[in-house]
Amino acid sequence: MTQSNGSSLATSEIKIDTIDNTGKMNKTLIVTLAAVFALTPFTIDSYLPAMPTMANAMGVDISLMSVTVSLYIFGLAIGQLIGGPLSDKKGRGFAMIAGLAVFAVASILLTTANQIEVLWLWRVLQAIGGGMAVVGVPATIRDTTSGKEAAKLFSLIALIMMIAPSIAPTVGTIIMSLADWRWIFYTLAIMAVLVAILVMCFMPEPTEKVTLEPVSSEIQQKFGLLSVFSEKRALGFMVAQAFAYSVMMIFLTNASMMYMEVFGQTPKQFSMLFFANICGLVVVNRANTFLLSRFEPEALLKAFLSLQVFGGIILVTASVLVPDALYVAAVGFVIAISANGAVISNSSACFMKSFGRNAGSASAVLGATQYTIGGTVSALSAFISLGSVQPVVIMMLLSSMIALTGATIAAAYSRKAVS
Question: Which of 16, 155, 259, 373 has its CA 20 to 30 A from that of 244?
Fold first, then answer.
């Protein structure tokens, strides 16, 4: 079906019964998508308590074991680039199940690793499987909802992304108290199988067509990943999400150094200061869901990115004027990090609304860009910090300013395109 101006209408083949009579996605599908999405952040953090034990078992320094975190982030980017086009061609459920199968097999293989290089290999494979599965979540939301309802669902997914890593280390610790480190990966394999069963039971089948929003040109229906870059009004939102996510990754990479080495906090005090950021993320996330009833996602995205910039200004100013003021820095970190409780969901909704049948490819490019830039910028921040807070907070401020600029340009471009 085409419009008179030659642009195509995007269609997505989904089951009508995945949407209730109020236009909202049904609860079983939401739970399924949440389970798929939660697996990745849970996987990243669940084995952290086991890292010293694993390093000793393989006879390597713990720094080499820590490399597996970065490897997982980059593996996610690769997996999303594979899974996105696959989900466009074969269906969201197919790509999710394929990814979960790869994830489960790699998790089992991780338990057999006796050398660090082998562990790295299976960890990357595990991440690729996770990326293939998770990329279908934003695409499915785009298939079934749009506008404010999509933003609310992205907000829910973002909330899960915050909660899962906060409980994962505790789960890993419990497993370590009952068995050895290998059972953490056995548990992840079992979880992947259970999530795959949910996908098989509740993901929509491609039986009926639902017409969604128009996309800009026929090129989006033909060229997969590259077609995403032809939708210029969406690219600013992708930049906004990638650099806002970088702010969080910079903090996560350097938090222990800043709080424990520079400010001299104990592990218990560090945990409390870190938990304050989790609380802030949850509060902002829930506030964003409430505000979506009154405001558009584009407006909220710019507002919360402005809040993140404000937090960065506090941090940079404090690093110059009162470098030893712990609680001024802590407030700045909470403000800057908490803003992501709304930014990621709104930027995802704003970006994905420009895509239809190639929503899987769009989701892949968005996720791969987010993880690649976030991982690169955070690694650079650790390299240049040299045990100092100031270079870290300057990079946080610069990243948040780039994010706000991207969102502002994209919003203006979208308004111009509509008019």
Answer: 259
